[in-house]
Each structure stands twice: as C-alpha cells, then as structure tokens.
Amino acid sequence: MSDSSSSIKAMIFSAGLGTRFKPWTDKHPKALAPVNGKSLLQRNIEYLQQYGIRDVIVNVHHFADQIIDTLKKNKGWGSNVVLSDETDKVLETGGGLLKAKELFTPGQKFITCNVDILTDLDISKLIAFHEKHKPLISFAVSGRKTSRNFLFDKQDRLCGWINTVTGEQRISIDSPDLIQKAYSCVVVFEYDVFRLMPFEGKFSLTDMYLELARNHAILGYDHTGDKWVDVGKPESVTVAESLFY
C-alpha cells in the first residue's frame, strides 16, 4: 500500500439503470447484485480498502433507497461513504462526476471506478504511473478483445476512439500507428479536471476524455493479465464468480 493512496478519495459510479441486467434490476439496483454472496458495491468498497482508500463517494439513482439502507445497515463496510444524489435524473459517468465535485477535496487527485466492474488491478501501481508521468488523467487499459477501443500513440497518450464493428472513429490527435486498447474503468484524475470539463449536464466520460485529449495529456496504463470482468449482464455473474471468491 502506498502512502499516496491513503488520503485519496474515490467515487464508485452506481447510478445506472442496469437495463442489461434485467430481471434483477426490475426490483433492485445493479450495485446490490450478489457475486459469491457479496454485492458488487461491497466488493468495490473492499477493493479500494486494500489500497487504504476509505473515503468513498457513491452516486445513486435507480432504487437509491435500497443502496442507502444497505450502506447504513453495513456501516459502509468500514469505509466513510458519502452519497451523491442523482435521483432526479441520470447524468451518465461524466455528468455524475461533475455533480459530485463538491464532495472531493480541492487540489487533490482522486480515483473513480464502476460498480459493475470487478478487477484485481493494483491501484498503487496505477497511482505510481500517474505520479511519474503527471498527466491530467490516467486510466487503466488492457489488450482484451472488445468492439470499442481507445486509441493510443507509442507514448501511451490518448489520441482517439474506434468501434471496430461499425468502423466509426473519433480522432483527437492525429498520430501514426495508433494502438487499440480496451478501457478498464479505473481512473486517476487531477482535481483540475473540474476546471477544464467541456460539458455540463448529462455526458459520458468517454466524450470528455476525447475532448480534453486534444490539449491535455491523458494516458493509458496497461494492466493486461490482471483479472477483469464487466458484470453487465446476468450471465456474466458466473464468470465473475469463477474469478472473485
């Protein structure tokens, strides 16, 4: 555990409707879906604790009361959990982050992750990478197969995005020999990102990254080989349970 991670706050994006996760999400938030007896939310809170991160922001929308009740009953599983209330409307990841701005510590970098992603990525290594290269944003990526990839140059700088099925490309920086890598949804941000955000209201982090990448360094940290699973659909629970006990 690195000292630099212990004072960092983290945000777990938990507000999604979980439409891919029906029928569970007809009556529950996806954040409380169990994997080997522990909810996705509990697993992510305990994952952050492994790196000394115990100040956690959780955004809520879909069945927010169930998440609130569960956090109270379990005393945040030992972490100091603060809620960002999005019950009025879903803001997506970028808008959700912007709404939570006042809950972060001015001037301090922070981490975000997604409640439906489970991984054993070493956060202290991601932070060390970020501190060495000093970009605005560093996020974990890997070489796994997926249809939507971010595009990087040989210095790991974000240059664009591609959908390999439709062929759609969005280029922020023209660079030869771009390398495709899959987004892993664990991210280190400098607090300055709030000053630079180019959007308001409802927007995705992907759109924000591609806009900011034109003028600011956004780097991909490759953690290929680590465990990683998107628990986005009910059938992916079986995969998650085979990897996370």
Secondary structure layout plus pairing:
Layout: H1 3-6, E1 9-13, E2 34-35, E3 38-39, H2 40-49, E4 55-60, H3 64-73, E5 80-85, H4 92-99, E6 110-114, E7 117-119, H5 123-133, E8 137-142, E9 148-152, E10 158-163, E11 169-171, E12 179-189, H6 193-196, H7 205-212, E13 218-222, E14 228-230, H8 236-243
Parallel strand pairs: 1-4, 1-6, 4-5, 8-13
Antiparallel strand pairs: 2-3, 6-12, 7-14, 8-12, 9-10, 9-12, 10-11
- Total count of domains: 1
CATH architecture: Alpha-Beta Complex
Number of strands: 14
- Unreliable sequence segments: none
Name the CATH superfamily classification: Spore Coat Polysaccharide Biosynthesis Protein SpsA, Chain A
The CATH topology is given as Spore Coat Polysaccharide Biosynthesis Protein SpsA, Chain A
Q: How helical, in percent, are the residues?
A: 25-40%
The helix/strand class is alpha/beta
Run of helices and strands: HEEEHEHEHEEHEEEEEHHEEH
Q: Please report the number of helical segments.
A: 8
Give the overall average pLDDT: 96
Overall morphology: globular
What Rg, in angstroms, do the CA atoms define? 17 Å
* Biggest beta sheet attributes: 10 strands, mixed
Query: Roughly what fraction of the amino acids lie in strands?
Result: 25-35%
Kindly report the oligomeric state of this protein.
single chain
Describe the structure.
The protein has 245 residues and is α/β, with parallel strands linked by helices. It has one domain (3-243): Spore Coat Polysaccharide Biosynthesis Protein SpsA, Chain A, CATH 3.90.550.10. Helices cover 26% and strands 28% of the residues. It is built from 8 helices and 14 strands. Helix 4 (92-99) packs across helix 7 (205-212). The relative contact order is 0.18. The mean pLDDT is 96.
